[in-house]
Amino acid sequence: MSRLRFTPGNEAGWGTLIGGQEPISLGMDQFKYVVFKDPKWDWRTFDFDKDIDRTIEADNGLTDARNPDIKPFLAHDGKLLLYHGWSDQLVPTETTISYYQDVAKTMGGASKIDNQVRMFLAPGMGHCGGGDGPNTFDTLAALEQWVEGGKAPEQMIASHSTASKVDRTRPLCAYPKVATYVGSGSIDEAASFVCK
Description:
Number of domains: 2
Strand content: 15-25%
Distance between the termini: 26 Å
Radius of gyration: 19 Å
Number of helices: 7
Number of strands: 6
Strand order of the largest sheet: 1-2
Shape: globular
Largest sheet: 2 strands, parallel
Helix content: 25-40%
Oligomer: single chain
Structural class: alpha+beta
Order of helices and strands: HHHHEHHEHEEEE
């Protein structure tokens, strides 16, 4: 996976990663309990010359699930629905795109996985939700229709709310398609867009 850069537009969330006096707790827990196995470990003792390799070895695939060979999963008629926000400030969106492309290549091409693997990218959505773009959508209903009804999701309608009132909807399209404005109608209504 070569693409590890953040996409423009998520800068407002970087403070979570680089701001403050202490590192983000999620990262701290990974180092304390997985890498160093010491709840009292002090991040100031991290040695870049020695501890990078230790970090990679300690994970041992626990949180770094990058193997694109998912043949056993697909052989059991598994359905994989991936989604990622374009404004994710913690995990670069392009890592998920790269993983999807690696899976497609490993499995013989996108057409070979199309009935079992789908990916959706959400413009303006942050890490697992939130953000300025439509960021609320029902992945469970899409997965249920796919597994129980055999209908792979082509799109999911996402919404954005301000003060608990929906103020924008937009289709999220199965990759590589994107929502394209039809040229008329409100840009805040999903009906004004088609997946192309």
